[in-house]
Amino acid sequence: MKLSEYAKHLLLAPNLEDKLLSPSKHWEEESNLKSLRIEKPERNQLLQFSDKKVKIPRLEHLNLESNRGLTLHHFANHELMAIELFAWAILAFPHASKSIRNGWVKTIEEEQTHLKMYIKRMNDFGVQFGDLPLNYIFWKQLGQFNSIESFSAVMSLSFEGANLDYSQVYAKVFSYFGDKETSEIMVYIFEDEIKHVKRGVRAFEKSVPSEKNSWEHYLSLIQFPFTPRRAKGYLYIPETRFLAGLDSKFVQHLAEYEDEYTGRVNLESIKKFDLGRELMRKNRLDSHSRQV
Question: Facing residues of 49 across strands?
């Protein structure tokens, strides 16, 4: 199978099991390297995009298993969109370097693992994938993906960057409520997200012009109403960005960033938990830090 054929399969096959097909270890040589930009993925009726807004349960309500299931459903939706959009990038940017393409394939494989983990655990809580409306916030950014760098700025530095914060917050809150299994899933995903953001940083940093710093370049690659607010979670944890290879000025600018939406984020839920500053970690990231 060619890599482009695999990417088309992930985008155009309608069923969830189709989207979970693992990538090959070896690809046939490509003969046609034309850019292909697919506007929308094929999905069966259960997986259709919805404009209906569904609020994620508040942190203090995660003592209830049903709310944990709903929360994981929210996260699983993000994983499915990520699988599709990294496949989209493979088709849209066929002349990307081999290292970048390989990084996208690894990310797809890891996102597939995350999706399976979320689905298995949410099923334990009585929630099936597709029980709730599926938003398409990632796919709404399609018009911004004009280059590998802009794709990396939005998908890796922003959406996956924010997940560095979210995965830590939820790992700690699940642990607070005695749910070790779900907490460990979030830590596992956190460690993979470090690699995902790092891959995006590598693609992004090569294009920073000499007259700009990385933060200025990042701002030039994203389009309003998308703002850096999307690049951090309820609770910003700078150390995670250093682990992903972002420079100190970028990390500081992101910490200081506020916009008209910032005040709408309700931090009261977080204040009820003494989350501390120490990251929840496993040794897996350290032992595989070179395999990103």
Answer: 134
pLDDT tens figures, 18-63: 999 999 999 999 988 999 999 999 999 999 999 999 999 999 999 9
Q: What secondary structure, in 3-state letters, does 13-40 show?
A: CCCHHHHCCCCCCCCECCCCCCCCCCCC
CA 17 remoteness from chain centre? 20
What does the block give as tokens for 80?
């499915």
CB 225 within 8 A of CB 140: no
CA separation, residue 13 to residues 8, 112, 134 (Å): 8, 15, 18
**pTM, two decimal places:** 0.94
Give Cβ neighbours of residue 57 (< 8 Å, ≥ 6 apart): 64, 67, 68, 70, 71
Q: What are phi and psi of 182, to 5 degrees?
A: -70, -35
Would you kindly state where each structural domain of the chain is located, as residue ranges? 1-20+46-136, 148-292
